[in-house]
Amino acid sequence: MVHGKVFSAQGRDISCAMNKRYCRGNYTDLVSIRDQQQNEEVKIKGLNSSTPFWIGLLRDDWQWTDGGNSTYRNWASGQPLSSPYNCVKLFAREWYSVPCSNVQYPLCYNTSIHVSDVALSWEKALDYCHEGNRAGILNIDSEAEQKEVASELRRRRVSEPVWVGA
């Protein structure tokens, strides 16, 4: 688990657009790597194999498929290439821009965020989050995590305030 995400490298060679649909249908989305720490954690988790994987970065102003901005990038030497190399694969720890019609394995993630469907007081929210093998109330440790949480709440159409740890 990296920054509240569980990664899943799927053994299916499919195009970037199909990967995005696949990950969103079966997980949350293609993976977004927001900073050097996350890039290192992905490597530590063993996802730096010789197999290339799609990640969720697109040339459209180099935005992540989950809507987040990309300020951290780990391009290989000579990268990124110009259009039509509009999608990004992770290969041997570095990022490469490639045509979106290429086929690669998707690197998907599931968030570990759970949002209650009932509004609760702070104390009851703490109890709720510790019930049923949940890890506890969400702590946000960086601006990157704040952006990820905000993006996930938008994706889930949560517009009401939510409790987070301090």
UniProtKB/TrEMBL annotation:
SMART domains to which the protein is assigned, alphabetical: CLECT
Record-linked SUPFAM superfamilies: C-type lectin-like (SSF56436)
Domain C-type lectin: 20-109
Pfam families found in the cross-reference section: Lectin_C
Protein name (database record): C-type lectin domain-containing protein
Lineage: Eukaryota, Metazoa, Chordata, Craniata, Vertebrata
